[in-house]
Amino acid sequence: MNRQPANILDRPLRASRAGDTMVSMSSFAYLYSELVQYHQNRVDSISELERRLESSGYGVGLKMLELLAYRSREYKREIRLMNALQFVSTTVWKSLFGKPADSLERSIDHADEYMIVDYEPLTSTFVSVPSDFGQLSVDAYMSGIIAGVLSGAGFSARVTAHSVQLEEGEHSTAPPSQFNSTNLPPRTEKAVFLVKFSPEVLERDAGMDR
Amino acid sequence: MSKATSNGQQLWNKVPKANAELFALTYGALVTEVVRDADENLATVNEKLEKIGYSIGIRCVDEFLAKSNSPYCKTLAETAEVLGKTAFRMFLGIVVDVVQHSPSSFSLNFQDNPLSLFVELPENYKELEYSILYCGVIRGALEMLNYKVDCQFVKSPLKGDDTHEIKVDVKQVMSDGAGEDYQEE
Amino acid sequence: MVFLHLFIVNKSGGLIHHRALSPKAPQIGTNEWLRIGSTFHSLYAIANEASPMKLSQNKNVSGADDGIEEIQADGLVLRCLQTRTGIKFVVTAEPGTSDIDQVLREIYILYTDCALKDPFYELEMPIRCELFTTSVDALIRTMERSARLGIR
User: Do C132 and A128 touch (CB under 8 A)?
Assistant: First the structure.
């Protein structure tokens, strides 16, 4: 049996099909549940819990950007804001969750805000937020990931997660995740990730239009 | 192929999946937090990670029992086989070798470790048992099945070994049931 | 084919969940529920000890403690699933209701998905996870619908 080179930098990054390595969704869910509980025991407020989850996700986002960039044959650094967002909502999402995000929208009211929508956010799949926790979204971790990817790519943004009630008849039109889905009943809420870019990012991007 | 192995494969094919890299990076984020909060006292970190594993173990065992249709294991050897061949496969997709040392001890050997996909231990972190989470999971799960065990990493590629080896020693087999209160004197 | 009630008892005999599965289910007050839970837990163990036939080590084929599997009465049927980890899932139904065992097994699975993976659920404590109750309701509706349509 081949012994791996001792130095981790010399080992293959399992580039070819590495992104396909899986664990069961349950394993991720238990691990994530422990991460949430770990933070929950150390905070005094719901917003602090969300911030800590975002912060945990941020580092993951940075690393995912590196991994995906390394693996993609034709990765060109995105320099336009819309392309960076599309990279997140398609490539990053497909890699992490087995399917692209359900939609990417621009805010009507605020020029610096965009929304990425997911009808089945992974991190809240098995979670029931108690009523006394108000508007807590445990998908804050995913916001952190988004923020990490964007920041790493040069598009710093503040990203927050919001659980929004689905409207009558509203549902995902995307094909199901290739990671298989649970047998749980359809969700009543979707996750909306609000991306608010820094002013200098918007200025820079607008400047490229001229 | 044993029944435990084929059962493990079937279950693995059926269960919903998640990206192992997301899993690995999430664990990395957790370890980072624990290390920071323990002021880099690695013995404390190991203990904390093991406890987190225990918390997972006492929960995932019910999922295994509910979903796996595994036959009732009457001996430790059978339990070890099912743990290594079915459970590890079902939850992590990895192939595990089970080696029985004695009626009260066995080892689980495996190559692939989804927890440590991108990890290398820096020099001053050699005391950190990075994947000790598994030991806690095994300890918790077996405790719910009335085995009180000690669980240790004996070999780890992060420490220079070729493979992973987790050794499980049974300290006590507990009797259970509320029935004890109602037995005739 | 009507499912009436579900209740769940933890390994210490504490009632951690109760739910009416149909509008036909009689109303039972909270204190009564607590009494039902602990009484059933004790009866389960007593039945094991009182039984003239003992299974090896008092364990049934799935390795769980042996005890009351079913109670048949004029107005209802009660079935219990005891897990190896000591939890009792109990469902009552109108006589003639089929597939109660399957319902119990599915509820056990829902417990493992919707309660045990919820960071806000504490083991052995009352189950208040909305996802669990929603999923149980959906399960019962599915079972009753397929029974009505004769689907197997």
Answer: yes
